């Protein structure tokens, strides 16, 4: 993917310059090699990262009601939510404790392995799996995942692990969205629109 292609798809010039080479590297490594595959990968990447402007999970919430609304199964009351308001580290350690390969709340794993990268790699187990696949020290240096090259490579790894080239070839954006976002299918319409725009550029 070239800088000009990314800009034509709606990426800012600054982000396009930062991500053209990393996205190309990810595509080459994981067989994202046809216009449909590239367009689908790029569309999902643009949506998930707000066009490559957000590479780390935002855990800053300003009210206990919002904390409860976002994490109802992990924060069980407004009283429990209050200490987590405007406290991203405590919130991450609470909501990601004892899951996704993380240790307990006191381990700090929730914060250390919070969502990063284009597809928001989250949890010690996923960082470890990506580390093994990409031969990069993500457990010791999780902040690498928020850098353009590793953000793109971990997204490509996730794409490959989910075997998403096949639905991409079929133009099945809903199947890809479900694999990335789950049953919520958030941003379904925008993802489809971004795909069509990218396919027009990349084809």
What does this structure look like?
- With about 200 residues, this protein is mainly alpha-helical.
- It has two domains: about 110 residues, no CATH class; about 50 residues, no CATH class.
- It is about 55% helix and about 0% strand.
- The longest helix has 17 residues.
- The protein starts with a helix and ends with a helix.
Short characterization:
The protein has 12 helices and no strands.
Spell the H/E element sequence: HHHHHHHHHHHH
Helix-strand makeup class: mainly alpha
What is the helix tally?
12
Label the overall shape. globular
Overall mean confidence score, pLDDT: 96
Radius of gyration based on Cα positions: 17 Å
Q: Count up the domains.
A: 2
**Could you tell me the strand content as a percent range?**
under 5%
Q: State the end-to-end CA separation.
A: 12 Å
Tell me the number of strands.
0
Explain the layout of strands and helices:
Blueprint: H1 3-8, H2 13-29, H3 35-48, H4 64-70, H5 78-81, H6 88-95, H7 109-112, H8 124-134, H9 148-161, H10 165-169, H11 173-181, H12 188-202
Helix pairs in contact: 2-9, 3-12
């Amino acid at each position: 993917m070239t800088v000009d292609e990314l800009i034509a798809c709606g990426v800012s010039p600054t982000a396009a310059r930062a991500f053209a080479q990393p996205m190309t590297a990810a595509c080459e490594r994981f067989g994202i090699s046809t216009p449909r595959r590239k367009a689908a990968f790029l569309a999902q990447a643009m949506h998930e990262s707000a066009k490559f402007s957000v590479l780390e999970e935002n855990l800053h919430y300003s009210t206990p009601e919002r904390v409860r609304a976002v994490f109802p199964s992990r924060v069980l009351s407004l009283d429990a939510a209050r200490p987590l308001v405007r406290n991203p580290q405590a919130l991450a350690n609470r909501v990601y404790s004892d899951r996704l390969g993380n240790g307990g709340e006191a381990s700090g794993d929730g914060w250390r392995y919070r969502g990063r990268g284009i597809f928001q790699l989250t949890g010690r187990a996923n960082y470890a799996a990506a580390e093994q696949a990409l031969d990069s020290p993500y457990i010791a240096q999780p902040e690498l995942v928020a850098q353009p090259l590793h953000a793109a490579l971990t997204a490509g790894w996730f794409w490959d692990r989910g075997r998403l080239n096949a639905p991409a070839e079929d133009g099945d954006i809903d199947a890809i969205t479900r694999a990335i976002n789950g049953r919520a299918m958030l941003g379904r319409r925008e993802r489809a629109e971004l795909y069509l725009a990218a396919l027009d550029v990349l084809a």
